[in-house]
Amino acid sequence: MSTFSPSATKIRFVVGAVGIAGAFFLPWWVPLVCMIGLALRYPAWEVLFIGLVMDLLWLPGQGFEVPVFLITGIALVWVCAPLRNQFLRP
Amino acid sequence: MPTARRYSKAMMNSYRQNKSPHRRLFALTVLVIFLFLLDVLTGGSVRHQLRGGAVVLGDWSAYIGGSVAGSGVFRTRASLESQNRSLAEELAQYEERAGAYEVLRVENEELRAFVRLVEGTSREGQGVTAPVVSSVRTSPYGTFLIGAGEAEGIVRGSQVLTSGGFVVGTVTDTGAHTATVGEVFAPGASVEASVGGASFTAEGSGGGNARAKVPRALSIRINEPVLAPQLGQRPIGIVGSIASSTASASQELFIVLPVNLSSLRYVYILPVGN
């Protein structure tokens, strides 16, 4: 299955939308699952965006705190890149 | 040589295919890091805008949800869910009242012991009642949003109370019309607490729950109120259960907030001076 086939694009869009909506309304593990799913399958910028939104929304805001979700997003995107290239190349 | 040329061509194609997404991802990685640092350096300008948007989105979703429920679609399911929710909230209110009663009883006993002690006329001062505008389950950091901010007189460090007088958290960040509340029992947080005069450190585990280890010799009862000296000796929960073993010198207390955090609709915010 091609990464750029319409079905793959739709899946990516839906998972990304659920992840972003989940950052606002759903339990925190839903965006995390979406981030992992997206990062494993696509070179998805949405992963970074979801991580940023989660940290901006929910970090307590007392000085500098470790942005766990943003770091996780960056790690997922770049750690999963070789895996995607190796196993999911069209 | 032809084989080598073929592999070389394939690698070049692969490189061309992957170069663009990687470059875009790298640019976006730099962008999100820049946005985060910008937010930190500007004291939360980005996050306050986002939280304001979250409150508006929450209002819209509640309005749309109410319209769909009121339109008759899912009527049976909605009525059952509504009944279930109201019963759960009623039960939580009774539990909270029982906890509040226990707090008052203990306080009354202490006041009887110190007859000369005169309580201030208004310990609470001028506070603000604010709606809870986010779910406590959404945050991985043990925080939630309230619909009042600097414009309503909320400042960092203010204590946030339930209607029964239990401290659920403190204000950690304020926007114009929103504020972030960090739960007392946020995951990984610790707070100095006392039960029946014995002091200990309670470790939060999220969702209004905490645990603590105390000497087994201490006589502690279930439903006994847990107070926090650093929060003005206000109650932060009750003893939900006790696990002790004769083989151990300590017993483990499981502390719970006698109100379901998910069902909290309004909270009371005390001024910092109190």
Task: Give a verbal description of the structure.
The complex is a heterodimer of chains A (90) and B (274). In chain A, helix 2 (29-41) packs parallel to helix 4 (68-87). The mean pLDDT of chain A is 85. With 90 residues, chain A is an all-alpha fold. Chain A has helices at 6-25, 29-41, 46-58, 68-87. Chain A contains four helices and no strands. The N and C termini of chain B lie far apart (83 Å). In chain B, strand 6 and strand 7 (198-206) form a beta hairpin. The longest helix of chain B has 40 residues, at 2-41. By secondary structure, chain B is of the alpha+beta class. Chain B has a six-stranded antiparallel beta sheet, with helices on one face. In chain B, strands 6-7-8-11-10-9 form a six-stranded antiparallel beta sheet. At the A-B interface, helix 1, helix 3 and helix 4 of A face helix 1 and helix 2 of B.
Q: Which oligomerization state do the chains in this entry correspond to?
A: heterodimer
Q: What is the mean predicted local confidence, pLDDT of chain B?
A: 80
Name the structural class of chain A. mainly alpha
Helix content of chain A: over 70%
Order of helices and strands of chain A: HHHH
How far is the N terminus from the C terminus of chain A? 7 Å
Please give the radius of gyration of chain B in angstroms: 26 Å
% residues in beta strands of chain B: 25-35%
**Number of E-state strands of chain A:** 0
Structural class of chain B: alpha+beta
Features of this protein?
heterodimer, A: 90 residues, mainly alpha, 4 helices, B: 274 residues, alpha+beta, six-stranded antiparallel sheet, 3 helices, 26% strand
